[in-house]
Amino acid sequence: MRSVRARAAIGATLVVAVALVAAGLAVLSVLRTNLIDQADLQAEVAAREVAGQLALDTAYADLDLDDEEDHPVQVTDEEGRVVFVSQGLRAISGTGSAGVSPVPSASVGATPSPGDDDDGGGSGRPERGEVSSDDPDFSDGTATVDGKQADYRFAAVEATTSAGITLTVHAGAPLAAEQEAVNTVRGAMLTGLPLLLAVVAGVTWLVTRRALRPVEGIRREMAAITASEDLARRVPEPDSRDEIARLARTTNETLTVLEASVERQRRFVADASHELRSPIASLRTQLEVAEAHPELLDLPGAVADTVRLQVLAADLLLLARLDAGEKPGAARIEAGALVREEVSQRTGDRIPVTVEVAEGAAYEVSGSRGQLVRVVGNLLDNAQRHAENRITVQVAADGRGVRVEVRDDGAGVPEDERERIFERFVRLDDARSRDDGGAGLGLAIARDVAARHGGTLTVHRAPEGGAAFRLWLPYAATA
Question: Do residue 131 and residue 80 come from a single domain?
Fold first, then answer.
């Protein structure tokens, strides 16, 4: 079954069916038990009434019996012989004896009255009999009275006559009412159960259909987005506050992020193509001129364009690896030594760089040495383009990490541009020269690398008046 509605309807119907069957069986069991208890009580009352008369030495022919059809009676003696049956009883089962014809017995007829013995005195026999006070034994059986066979519940009560003879009285109570009631309830359940299950299945189907209607709307819209490739579209959000509404909101948030990612990728490709076009065109022009007029070859210019093209290609490759989720290494790096080494290798800078690191301090971080060197180099390149007379790099502890701050005394970064400068291919108006400025990827790369290392990169106003770029990296985990 591929339909959620069908599975929900069938599942709900099965659960309700099992519950109703269990409840029905329990109801029938309780009903049957209660009715049998009532029959037991009726049979016991009838049996004790007859036993009481026998205990009073009432002759069998004089026994006062209630409705003999509803309460058939069978009396047996100590040897199990049938000594009395109620009028009209033609067959019986379930009492221990199937006999319905009384046989002669010492107890047949009226029991001698007390003191009516031969010696005229007491013979030691009790003056009157007694009825057993023990709980009677109950059993199920059948009886045929006046040609009608029916099921009965029999109670067995013992009675002792004044002559010391123990008789067992079996009196029955009909089970027809119990059977009729149970059959009526069972029939009502069997008739109503299919109807109730049909109602449950239908209601579940309709409720599930209504509940899943927003899901179908989301599916159709997603299919339309997939077919049109229009990521600006959004799925409908229901007004409810349930899981489906949260699914729709999450889907729209995912589409927003995906749209932004695709748009950023498109911009990146367009900007990269634009940035690559200039050095490639310049280099081609110089090579074509050199081919026609070798004496006019601008070799330094060709080398500069080649270097620029190489740097740009390296930046684009690094950004592609970062976007692909490349994780940095886990090497332990001393931040102060890394900064000193990078500054010492920059021999062509127009402004000398001052490094401030506390003597004897160790600032260990973990990650990719090459990428962190790239971050420091990009920040120094940016400072060289904007500084007037001074550039300072300070390495110091900052909370649970290390702060590497690059400051210059240039014009600084306007406050409303401090986040924009970290976007790719963004150059402020005073740094748009392709001769002196880069392609606008250095700060974007630096921030991405910092984020991949669990750190941050922000820009502030330096005490010297220019920009202060603060790179924060967490300490390396201790072994």
Answer: yes
- What pLDDT, on a 0 to 100 scale, did the predictor assign at position 108? 41
Helices and strands of the chain, counted as H and E runs = 7, 14
User: In angstroms, how far is CA 350 from the centroid of its own chain?
Assistant: 64
Please give the residue range of the domain that contains residue 299: 243-323
Token code pair at residue 243: 């899981």
Q: What is the pTM assigned to this prediction? A: 0.51
Within 293-393, where are the H helices?
Answer: 299-323, 335-344, 369-386
* Of 20-29, 102-111, 340-349, 358-367, minimum mean pLDDT range: 102-111
**Tokens encoding 277:** 């076009």
Kindly report, residue by residue over 245-301, the tens digit of the pLDDT.
888 899 999 999 888 888 877 877 777 777 777 778 878 888 888 888 887 777 787
The SS3 of residue 166 is: strand
Are 316 and 423 members of one domain? no
Q: List, in order, residues 6 or more apart from 260 with CB less than 8 Å away.
A: none
- pLDDT at residue number 132: 86
In a domain, 360, yes or no: yes
419 plus 308 within the same structural domain: no
Q: Are residues 175 and 59 in the same domain?
A: yes
Q: Is residue 267 a part of any domain in this protein?
A: yes
CB 331 within 8 A of CB 453: no
* Selection from 395, 383, 371, 307 nearest residue 346 by Cα: 383
Q: Are 459 and 413 in contact (CB under 8 A)?
A: yes
Same domain for 305 and 341? no
Residue ending a domain, among 164, 182, 200, is: 182
Q: How many of the other CB atoms lie within 10 Å of CB of 273? A: 9
Q: Which of the listed residues 323, 352, 378 is the one where a domain comes to its end?
A: 323
